[in-house]
Amino acid sequence: NVPVERIIATSTTHIPALENLGVIDKLVGFPETRYISSEATREKIDKGKITDLGNNESINTEMAINLNPDLIIGFSINIQNKAYETLQRSNVPIVYNGDWTEETPLGKAEWIKFFAPFFGLEEKAENLFKATEENYLAAKALAKQATNKPTVLSGALYKDVWYLPGGKSWAASFINDANADYLWSDTNATGSLSLSVESVLAKATDASFWVSPSQYISYNELDKASRHYHRFKAYKEKKIYTFANTKGETGGLLFYELGPARPDLILKDLIYIFHPELMPEHELFFFKPLL
């Protein structure tokens, strides 16, 4: 029955959609609530209005059933998830949100429309998405006015392998739309690339900027992790920016929660970083200089 009154969500990316549609009060359960960064939703958690359902891969099915949800929003289509199987056998409807499969900034943001029909809010979702789309496209058009196109490196080492976004990935799209030269934009990967440090050094030693250096939040951490990082121009000139410093009250990364819903904010951050003269009044939201 629509509108639904009681739902369980399973990914932090679901939170902004529910908040923006004005239905976050319908959320009664969530696995691993500590990862939620939104202040408004954290307040509801602290007041006991949202029940923590344990680990995402093995939701506490007894607790979930006792919450009497009208709907559970899953985030992956994994038929091996036994918790989902148990819940379905108990006649709890489960729908799967596939926003994580999207490869473009606006494609992810449009998933707010997925939630709308369950609450009879299709028109509101359409208007919210249109506003985000207009903001994003306006920022992209502004970036094209830049007279220079700085080179950009991303990612970092993990166990001697450098992981960075493929040229057709969600993350790479932002760098390209910010009118910067992502040095791996000519690759066709929509996920991440796995490279040797030698190949990264060969291509990006002189890159002007370095964004999203994995989990690192400070130059001191980079120093301790690998001697190779010192060799990059962006390291030497202190032009490394991370979203890993922007956290919620309980340590969740706001970028992963809110970023997919607000690509316009991500893009504006990167335009300001690469072309500060175009947005002199902008205050960085997700991305901050490495400490």
List the helices and strands and how they pair.
Layout: E1 7-9, H1 14-20, E2 27-30, H2 39-46, E3 51-52, H3 61-66, E4 71-74, H4 82-89, E5 94-96, H5 105-109, H6 112-115, H7 122-143, E6 151-154, E7 156-158, E8 161-165, H8 170-177, E9 181-182, E10 192-195, H9 197-204, E11 209-211, H10 219-225, H11 233-236, E12 240-242, H12 254-258, H13 263-274, E13 288-289
Parallel strand pairs: 1-2, 1-4, 2-3, 4-5, 6-9, 6-11, 11-12
Antiparallel strand pairs: 7-8, 8-10, 12-13
Helix pairs in contact: 7-13
What CATH calls the topology of the largest domain is: Rossmann fold
CATH superfamily membership of the largest domain, which one?
Answer: Nitrogenase molybdenum iron protein domain
DSSP helix fraction: 25-40%
Describe the main β-sheet briefly: 5 strands, parallel
How would you state the average pLDDT, rounded?
A: 95
Question: pLDDT under 50 segments (min length 5)?
Answer: none
Shape: globular
Kindly report the spatial arrangement of strands forming the biggest sheet: 3-2-1-4-5
The structure class reads alpha/beta
Distance between the termini: 50 Å
Give me the Rg, rounded. Answer: 20 Å
CATH class of the largest domain: Alpha Beta
What's the total count of β strands?
13
Number of helices: 13
Total of domains: 2
The topology string of helices and strands comes to: EHEHEHEHEHHHEEEHEEHEHHEHHE
Question: Beta-strand percentage?
Answer: 5-15%
The CATH architecture of the largest domain can be given as 3-Layer(aba) Sandwich
